[in-house]
Amino acid sequence: MVLDKDMNGQQQAKATRAALIAPCGMNCRLCTAYAREKKPCPGCRLESASKAKTRVLCRIKNCSKLRMQEIRFCFDCDEFPCARLAHLDKRYRSKYGMSMIENLSHIKQFGIRRFLRSENEKWRCHRCGEVICVHKSQCLSCGRAWHRNHTLTTT
User: Does some domain include residue 86?
Assistant: First the structure.
């Protein structure tokens, strides 16, 4: 994990960059594929040979409007939210307690910088300061358990 120093000289996990927010609203920084040590995924917006086939073939990422660079985020589409995004959102709401559609609405309403600040706070482990993976129920760095409502338990 890459660390930065805060104003007090304390090490902390590097903040999420705008390039890591996928067109669908997924924060790729929270994904297990991004967090893995062997052949990590660089995120949905960047191309890499280490990307899993599912990410390369993603139907949302490969939408013609996104490929033609007509839009940067799905909320700019006249079909927002399309059936594909709604299906993905429903799965992530029920399995992981997060919503791509809410993420996109936040970005549209408040801008990417405010969204990134919110994500960097929301998905931070209170014990070690590292980013929490949305796909796991515990911090990958220190093992502290957390609940899907984004609060960490005291185990």
Answer: yes
Burial track 108-132 (b if 16+ CB lie within 10 A, e otherwise): beeeeeebbeebbeebbbeebbbbb
CA atoms within 13 A on the CB side of 66: 17
What's the structural domain count of the chain?
1
Question: Could you list the residue range(s) of the whole structural domain that residue 31 is in?
Answer: 14-122
Q: How far apart are CA 144 and CA 90, in angstroms?
A: 26
Lowest mean pLDDT of 2-6, 113-117, 136-140, 148-152, name the range.
Answer: 2-6
Highest mean pLDDT among 7-11, 31-35, 105-109: 105-109
- On whether residue 147 sits in a domain, the answer given is no
Contacts with 39 (C-beta within 8 Å, 6 or more apart), sequence order:
50
- Residue at 149 is within a domain: no
For residue 56, name the pLDDT band (cuts at 50, 70, 90).
low
Torsion sign (Cα): 11, 116, 18, 45: positive
Beta-sheet strands, E only, within the chain: 3-5, 11-13
8 within a domain of the structure (yes/no): no
Is the model's pTM score more than 0.90? no
